[in-house]
Amino acid sequence: MRRAVHAVLLLLGASILCFLLSDLAPGSFFDEMKLNPQISPYTIAALRSAYALDQPLAIRYGRWVKSVLRGEWGYSFAYNAPVRSLLVVRARNTLLLTGFASVLAWPIALLLGIWAANRADTWGDRLTMGGTALLLSVPELVLSLCLLYLAIRTHALPVGGMVSVSFDRLDPWARTRDLAMHLIVPVTALVLSSLPILVRHVRSSMIEVLKAPFIQAARGHGIGRTRALLRYALPAAANPLISLFGLSVAGLLSGSLMVEIVTGWPGLGPLLLEASFARDLYVVVGVVLASTVFMISGSLLADVMLVIADPRVRVE
Amino acid sequence: MLGKRIIAAIVLLLGLHLAILFAGFFAPCDPATQNRDFPYAPPTRLYFMDAGGHLHVRPFIYPWVARPDSFYDYQESREHEYPLHFFVRGPQYKVAGLLPSRIHLFGVEPGAHIFLAGTDGYGRDQFSRVLYGGQISLAAGILATGISLCLGLVIGCLSGFYGRWIDDSTMRLSDLFLVLPWLYLLLAVRSFLPLHISPTEAFFLLVAVIGTIGWARPARLIRGIVLGAKTRKYVIASRGFGASDAYILRRHVLPHVSGILSTQAAMLVPQYVIAEVTLSFLGLGLGEPTPSWGNLLANLQQYNVLVSYWWMFSPAFALVVVSLGYLNVANIFQDRLQSGI
After folding, report:
1. What's the ipTM?
2. Among A21, A141, A146, whose Cβ lies nearest the Cβ of B281?
3. Are A83 and A73 in contact (CB under 8 A)?
4. Could you give the CA distance from residue A241 to residue B89 in angstroms, rounded to a whole number?
5. What percent of chain A has pLDDT over 90?
6. B190 vs A13: CB contact, 8 Å cut-off?
7. Which residues of A touch B324 (CB under 8 A)?
8. Domains in chain A: ranges and CATH
9. pLDDT the model gives residue B272
10. Residues B156, B15: Cα–Cα separation, whole Å
11. More reliable by pLDDT, A49 or A192
12. CA of A13 to nearest chain B CA: how many angstroms apart?
């Protein structure tokens, strides 16, 4: 309950911050119209007052909060529609992308991390660490450009967008296949960009636990290496990893912004970019808030999982 | 072992920074000079063995010539060899932006061009542009890191040292900045600022925005250190002797902070360089004609460039090497911090 209140306060703060910043903006969406001699200044003034852009900041903020409570999230000038209708579709696409990426990245990271921790300081471990260090310094932008290059050169995968042009004419099975093919490039980019941090954390927390006496005791009792690793060491190392899951949502979201823009995935990223160029104020605020909602729910989810996984947390 | 690794990493970084700072000397061409006869020429190959099978001590090149009746398609003209010369006179530049000079590290005789990383669509030497572009990108990253760390230092010290309402309010604010996804916030803030401005203004605007947004994490870390240092016995003792707040901060608290500061700096610089590259790539940062790694990479947004001219990836390569160097140093700093040296 306290967490929920905290989350709402954070969202309020974030929206106020966005509005304060937006007040710095020298122009508005309708400024471009001034260049057009066919549109009279009166029309522009009328539009401005229709969208309440001539009102002071506090009043605009109040009206925006009201529209959020109505479920509209403000109004997009460029799309001429309530922001919510845009956000819902785009947020769903981003969620699809990041969801798939984390479902793929976590098992791989767990496997690699445990494997590397198990044989710390061998060539396999060094290779893994070197690989993650290299991947860590490749930004998502470069990663997705490289993948795009490969996809185009090999002609193996469709590039750009979410579905093919012929999507509407396909049967359900072919539709799923089409969507999956389009997912491969952005998901691979996201997985590769989020993997190094996850692998490193899994490895270091496993190494920490493997040093503990109870693992030695278990091994001394004749418990096999694999069983000691998975049944004894992994649960003990789980807590920091569950917290990391909450944090990894943040990394995935920030990462998916660039991946989406470069690979043309119609998620929140391209929407934010378009809105930035068009000065579509409420869309920018909406996207920032939607991403904040994702982040907060990621950390809330991690907390809930921690409570389920660890009885000690429940007592507190 | 630790000593060798840190020396290697720092030497690599220093070399890269020097090469970029003295871009004029290391680059054979001016970054803005267009060779309209050589759009999208591939990287020039260096040879030691000529067509007749003779070995040369001094490497040489064969210049590109366009294939007759073709666009963007080149072959080497084997008629004449152009040996590579060092410390040659070439186009004028300014050493680190100050002293005019004409001496370049390497070059070939007039009549041929050496394009180590190929050329772009206007026939501008990509190698020179990557070096000059690095000046902008690295300067943006380093300056923005400076801003972030200064803000973090001041806010962290104030809130850790004085506590109470200063602490409460700044920490709530940092909660806010930490929960907002960084890149989204960066784009949003940039979108609220003017788009059509001069390159110099754009540069400083970019640095200010990137630096200001990232204050929260260093401030948090520094606050933690200050809180820990404040309650040490010798701090309480010196307070008993009548030391002023400023004295205690400078003398007893700040020395503890230096470890965190250097680690954070090594982590933030690559992150901020990438931020500049990202914004410029998207067209929200510095635009043409000033080269920066971001707007050099922006060429790859064109489908045909991405597919056909692999050497246009060279700024990405430079970016990866630089961030690899920085992250390596950051790792070593972190290890040292944790092992308590």
Report:
1. 0.84
2. A141
3. yes
4. 59
5. 4
6. no
7. 133-134, 137
8. 96-278 (1.10.3720.10)
9. 92
10. 33
11. A192
12. 7
